[in-house]
Amino acid sequence: PRSVSAAFQEYLQHLALQDFPCGLGSWNKSHLNARRSPRAEPVGLQEAVPPGEETPEVLLELLRDQHSPWALPPDCSPQHRLLREVAVLAPELLHGSRVFQAVKSLRILDKGMEEVDEGLLQFQQLEELILSANHISKVTSAHLPRTLKVLELCFNAVGDLQDLCAQPPLELQHLGLGYNRLCGPSQEKHLIMDFWPNLVSLDLSFNSLTDLPGLVSQLSTLQNLHILVLQGNPLALTPTYRGFLVDSLPKLSILDDIYIWPEERQQFHGLARQPELIRSEARVVVSIGEMMGLPNREDFQQLEVGSEGPVITYSYYVTYEF
């Protein structure tokens, strides 16, 4: 399976951190020697630079000037830009395995990844890991750096949280699991304080969660939870969905990207103590605006009144699968 480590190595090759104008090379030997020797005189004027070498300012200009053949693309990420410039000013910091220590945010989107491998443990300073729009079905928590604060796994194939909750990073503040394959109630037992003591934001949108009271009983243990997204789940169709959540989770500030005002909280006060109002059914109203490909009814209206022409009847039906 394609792993995160393999995708990162491809990313490094794309960055070209060891190639001109970045990296360790003859083109920046003078200013490297000056930094290593405190008594050396700094290179000030460009004409003082030996032939074949460049000052850091000139090398940076080659990255920043949009007309330069080494210029960064306009849509490159801030991390991309930062690493390239660090590779000019202090390339020894990114040499070899040291590059893993410099990465605090890693975003690998839509690269066909299937495996979160143990190679991630090399990122000992990693705080943000975004792996959305891949093919990840299982995440082993032992492969995640302990320093993680943000973990985004939206648009994947995660259907079980057991492996993720075996040894989760306790400092995690945001967990994004929207657009996956989570089904309740077996997964709800993993969304408790014991696994996520510092969780502030949780995205479970567009999964297949159905048990609203059961999920709320687990989420109520998350003492630091302020942002919750549940829209797109079947449980969000229940009539008292929002009111029950607002009253059950008093520390919640934002639900489904909508701020919870004090007036709304007062309006639903006491609803959490009336579970009988939560019904396990919902009504869905579907309106069909237009149907294509049907025979033109005007073709059958040309028969004269009283004629013995055949009568043709067409019937149509629409099927819904839940």
TrEMBL record:
Pfam families xref list: LRR_1
InterPro entries assigned: Leu-rich_rpt, LRR_dom_sf
Keywords: Leucine-rich repeat, Repeat
One cellular-component annotation, GO: cytoplasm
Family annotation (Gene3D superfamilies): Ribonuclease Inhibitor
The protein's name in its UniProt record: LRC43 protein
Gene name in the database record: Lrrc43
